[in-house]
Amino acid sequence: MRTRLVHLSDLHFGRDRPELMRPLIGAVNELNADIVAISGDLTQRARASQFRAARAFIDHLTAPVLCVPGNHDLPVHRPFRRFFTPFSNYRKHIAADLAPSQQAGEMAVIGINTMSPWRWQTGWASRRGIRRAARLCAASPPDRLNVIVAHHPFELPSDSTKSPMINAEWGLRTLVEAGADVVLSGHLHRWNVVSPPDPEAPAILQVHCGTGLSTRQRGEPNDFAVIDFDGAAEQGELTVTRWIADENDSFGPMDITRFCHGPDGWRLP
């Protein structure tokens, strides 16, 4: 049985492209996904109006939606609110649970909140949050794909100027040991699919999405990911497809990468 997940990230309502709204909703709904995962930064400045726009967007998606917050979803210019009620607008308009989990077909989709009011851009994978996600991975049946959703990447590209997430190396190792298979993240506004380059690397597949709607494209097209998993295949087959917006503001598939999952982790077919 095939399970389909659509991964969106960094929508940044408040710095979004309105002309892409309907095409993105239409493309996602036509894909008939089992679940949509949004890896943070739904807003630009964590204002109530921006969260209401994000909520309206989510309500137009036909598949169940799982979200985690990003650094832009915490108020920046209101110190009292940031340090005492940092997630109030997020909880009111998006979800009370900052680290939700949900089963979708042959996937266990597990959210991790990597945002702390004491950090501005740098993520913080709390040990409590990582251990909770690890327990959920360990409790999952062996034939189910464990998918982690976090705003901040656990590994940064070599040319990145951003600071690494606190507890990232330990967190990724802990998740792998518990049976996590895939990590979905955003934050960088850059597309990247990272598979283990050598036997010493973490045996986990990492998919970094760009931005689905924002004007802050950083030289890349607006995009999202479609992840198809067929656990009934001999070793489990997974396909990652990048969908991008073209010059006519229409989304379509571009890059397709296929993987097989065996006893030694991920490999190309």
Q: How would you characterize this protein structure?
A:
The protein is of the alpha/beta class. It is 22% helix and 27% strand. The chain is built from 6 helices and 13 strands. It has helices at residues 21-30, 48-59, 79-84, 88-93, 127-139, 168-178; strands spanning 2-8, 35-39, 65-68, 101-104, 107-111, 145-149, 182-185, 192-194, 205-208, 223-230, 237-245, 251-262, 265-267. The strands form 2 sheets. Strands 3-2-1-10-11-12-13 form a 7-stranded mixed sheet, covered by helices on one side. A hairpin with a 2-residue loop joins β12 and β13. α5 packs parallel to α6. The longest helix has 13 residues, at 127-139. It is globular and about 50 Å long. The two termini are 19 Å apart. The model has no long low-confidence stretch (mean pLDDT 91).
Order of helices and strands: EHEHEHHEEHEHEEEEEEE
Low-confidence parts:
none
Counted beta strands: 13
- Characterize the quaternary organization of these chains: single chain
Class derived from helix and strand content: alpha/beta
**Alpha carbon gap, first and last residue:** 19 Å
- Number of DSSP helical runs: 6
What characteristic shape results from the CA principal axes? globular
Rg over CA atoms: 17 Å
Helix percent reads 10-25%
Q: Which sheet architecture does the biggest sheet show?
A: 7 strands, mixed
Widest sheet: strand ordering: 3-2-1-10-11-12-13
**Average pLDDT score:** 91
**Share of residues in strands:** 25-35%
